[in-house]
Amino acid sequence: MIAASFRDCKAWKSEGLPLSTSSNEACKIYDAILTQYVTWRNDENLGGIEGCMAAVRAADPNFVMGHVISTGLELVGTGSSVLRDERLASAVRRTVELAQSQDITPREKLHTKAIELFSKGSLSKACDVWEEILVDHPTDMLALKFAHDGFFYLGYQTQMRDSVARVLPHWKPHMPLYSYLKGLYSFGLLETHFYDQAEKVAKEGLALTPEDGWSVHSVAHVHEMKAEVDKGLKFMESTEKDWEVCDMLACHNYWHWALYHIEKGEYEAALKIFDEQVSRRCLKSGAMLDTVDACSLLYRLEMEGVNVKDRYREMLQVTQPHTEDHTLLFNDLHFLMVSLGCKETATTQLLLESLRELAKDPGENVQFQLAERVGLPMCQALLEYDQGNYSQTVELLKPIRYCFSEIGGSDAQRDVFNQLLIHAAVKSGDKRHQKFARCLLLERDAVRPNSPLTDRLIQRAHALHI
């Protein structure tokens, strides 16, 4: 039996979010999955999210929302694609069939529709449906969190903020998971550059729930974007015991910690975090968030002149099986960093050619639609940089640099591509590119004053182009 604190049929109904099942156990397990998703934490006492997914199906095999949350989480995790994973494609079909064959609520029908759209890569339409649910049901945390993740993958920063702002007044402090809204809202605020407000809201969340890893992560972002390196290091260290229990987010928070060290030029300290935390957790979980973070750390260190070849080889075992998934361009770009770092030409070619093929006939898949204009030029730029064709890298990235946000992720995560453009422009033999590099560095210095990384790059540019 699952803990009594989770909501049963009656509790969900009294909150205006009735679930179409007569099984109290199924309702409680649904709540347990939702709680673990929002708190970024697999609860071993419950058997973790995976254990609960099996348990909810056992409790009521025909419970539509049990299928919606289980299949939805697999899709949102972006670790497998319905194009290449027949089991996942079949799970989506089963969810839709169940919804059509039963008398369920309009809200549950919309949830099913959103999952089906998301599975086809129609992310913005899926988000529209989740937003439609929230108009009538502002306390539907699943719709809110799925929309939040969808907007994140689309690079829709303003929507990520406003989606939470619209529902916040409807929530009351006694409601389950209330404090976690603070972290969600804070993240939207910081991605739209309201840094002080973002920090304030995140700290309100942490005052209520110190182990809220997403609020911690939001504060980490604020210090990153403002180049408050020492503040960031101190904050991560002083809160580590609270957030390391969030096993699904801890790796990402360690990634932020390592970024501060790279910013300061403390490469050994960054490598230590990579080896002891990021790499270890990534190899164990195989989760996409952990994977792209590991790829990104190595690439940033390599651009700084650190030798990470052996570590790339270790990462290849995680990224290579996903070469043809193409769930997100953001993921593809990070897998490419590893195949290039390992000189795995066949893997690199397979990734690029299979993506080009999908871009020819994108259908409603927003990632494939974006591939031709933004994704493939970014991929090609990584390839050119790897081959020492720096001027070509600049020519590919310069026209689309204000489109980087469209591949999704956060400002901090995408900064690796801003750095790539700067490094390529600095190294280019073309005098115009060298001038452009100086412009980019002045621009960076204005947005992020007192950044040691920017200062180093300015010095490098001067040394090369005196």
UniProtKB/TrEMBL annotation:
Entry keywords, A to Z: Repeat, TPR repeat
Source organism (scientific name): Chanos chanos (Milkfish)
CDD domains the record matches: StaR_like
Record flagged with keyword Repeat: yes
Gene name of the record: ttc38
Protein name (record): Tetratricopeptide repeat protein 38
Membrane-spanning segments: none
SUPFAM superfamilies found in the cross-reference section: TPR-like (SSF48452)
Family that this chain belongs to: Belongs to the TTC38 family.
InterPro entries in alphabetical order: TPR-like_helical_dom_sf (IPR011990), TTC38 (IPR033891)
